[in-house]
């Protein structure tokens, strides 16, 4: 039963194109996000309301596609096999290309430490993975998904200019520094950078270009043209189905370098009175949240990892006549290495390098945040994929997405209602809760509850140490606190 479920999920990913969007969606721009905000924009660590913020463990998982829709109840049933047009329905009549995505990450012990009210440092430890494939026309998806090899498609020509499948899993140690770089009157600027030590765990890609084939019979086909490029790292040859994840997790293998960089601007209009001296209690950093509006921009996941190709990796010219259709399938009990080697003997090899460089899912992140009254806030954020095109074979890419989140914030409680839409027009409403040390939510849970059939879903959860606060009356110890600045502006005597 489990294997059948995983098989269908894998089939969904064969129509994938993007992965790794915003993590902790809705909560990620909160002023209480602490260390969880660092991956979105490292500048958010500067001037934090926390002296310490510690993540014990957290996870964020999301997956989806545009081709298959599943009846929700079927995903949790005890039946051995899902039935097409009963348990799931393919979008066979669509005129667009078909896409999907899948990503996941585990945030292991991580910490944010405020050196003072201006600057902070952070360490983040994340194990991440993303998978991409697809970009094919619907008729190609139908050819392979509807009882392949299906006699209804005989004596027909098919063409695909581009199709790809990519997957990448890596370990990431991040070292961040952020600070207030300019503070004049109502305007404050922050900047931050994260340098990452990457450890590549697994990386694979398959790219098909300029394919054209004729399905002569259910047994034979003519491949008129096709260039295929596939590779995976040599460590994967030692993996077996009986291995546990921990048995091949090696955080320092296949080293690489990555980086995030970000800037945040805060608008802090003055008001009549001392404002936030006691906001949230006298033992909090009161100057952290006295902005009326703030805006940020960051570029994250710059860099990548170099891998050595496994021996079975190849670049092939697959042009051939009278190809036995079923010979293209991976056979039962056949290892991936043996399958890839067998394909290489069937077609003409092309020049192939021994290594490849797997790029991270680089993205541009934007956000704006408006403080309505100190408890109610409204934020908007966007993630724009910077490497989702067809030129680079060796990559995974971010999911372009826009999110608007009204939220309610107290010291130990936060409620978030993200409303989002992605590049494929899929709109969602979600819910997230921050309650003491627990953060849990989903950017699509409210939409999912109201739908009979779904084609995407996500969930995140994190457990943190309830943040350690600044020492008592620290509002009067900093050199640039709001209370001190306003007292100075009014000519109050120094205490």
TrEMBL record:
It comes from Chitinophaga caseinilytica. Residues 42-441 form the DUF5723 domain. This is DUF5723 family protein. The lineage of its organism: Bacteria, Pseudomonadati, Bacteroidota, Chitinophagia, Chitinophagales. Keywords: Signal. Residues 1-21 form the signal peptide. InterPro entries: DUF5723.
């Amino acid at each position: 039963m489990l294997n059948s479920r995983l098989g269908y999920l894998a089939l969904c990913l064969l129509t994938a194109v993007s992965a790794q969007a915003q993590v902790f969606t809705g909560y990620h721009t909160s002023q209480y996000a602490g260390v969880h905000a660092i991956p979105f924009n490292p500048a958010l660590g500067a001037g934090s309301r926390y002296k310490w913020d510690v993540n014990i463990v957290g996870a964020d998982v999301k997956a989806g596609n545009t081709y298959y829709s599943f009846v929700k109840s079927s995903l949790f049933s005890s039946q051995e096999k899902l039935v097409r047009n009963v348990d799931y329905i393919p979008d066979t009549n669509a005129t667009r290309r078909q896409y999907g995505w899948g990503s996941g990450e585990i945030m292991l012990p991580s910490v944010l430490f405020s050196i003072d009210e201006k600057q902070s440092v952070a360490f983040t430890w994340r194990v991440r993975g993303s998978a991409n494939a697809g970009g094919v026309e619907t008729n190609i998806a139908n050819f392979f998904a509807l009882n392949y090899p299906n006699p209804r498609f005989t004596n027909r020509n098919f063409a695909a200019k581009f199709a790809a499948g990519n997957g990448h899993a890596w370990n990431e140690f991040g070292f961040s520094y952020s600070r207030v770089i300019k503070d004049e009157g109502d305007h404050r600027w922050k900047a931050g950078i994260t340098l990452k030590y990457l450890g590549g765990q697994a990386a694979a890609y398959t790219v098909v270009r300029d394919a054209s084939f004729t399905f002569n019979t259910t047994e034979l086909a003519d491949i008129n043209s096709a260039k295929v490029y596939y590779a995976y790292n040599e460590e994967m040859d030692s993996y077996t189905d009986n291995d546990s994840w921990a048995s091949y997790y090696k955080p320092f293998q296949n080293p690489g370098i990555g980086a995030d960089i970000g800037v945040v601007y805060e608008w802090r209009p003055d008001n009549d009175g001392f404002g936030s001296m006691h906001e949230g209690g006298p033992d909090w950093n009161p100057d952290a949240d006295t902005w009326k509006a703030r805006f940020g921009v960051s570029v994250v996941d710059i860099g990548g990892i170099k891998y050595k190709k496994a021996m079975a990796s190849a670049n092939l010219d697959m042009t051939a006549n009278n190809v036995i259709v079923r010979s293209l399938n991976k056979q039962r009990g056949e290892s991936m290495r043996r399958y890839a080697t067998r394909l290489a003997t069937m077609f003409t090899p092309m020049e192939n390098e021994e290594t490849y460089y797997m790029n991270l899912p680089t993205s541009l992140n934007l956000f704006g945040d408006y403080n309505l009254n100190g408890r109610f806030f409204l934020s908007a954020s966007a993630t724009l994929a910077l490497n989702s095109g067809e030129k680079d074979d060796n990559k995974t890419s971010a999911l372009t997405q826009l999110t608007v989140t009204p939220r309610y914030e107290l010291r130990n409680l936060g409620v978030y209602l993200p409303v989002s839409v992605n590049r494929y027009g899929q709109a969602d409403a979600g819910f997230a809760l921050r309650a003491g040390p627990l953060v849990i939510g989903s950017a699509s849970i409210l939409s999912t509850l109201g739908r009979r059939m779904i084609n995407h879903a996500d969930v995140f959860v994190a457990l943190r140490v309830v943040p350690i606060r600044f020492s008592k009356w620290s509002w009067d110890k900093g050199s640039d606190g709001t209370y001190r600045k306003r007292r100075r502006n009014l000519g109050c005597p120094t205490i």
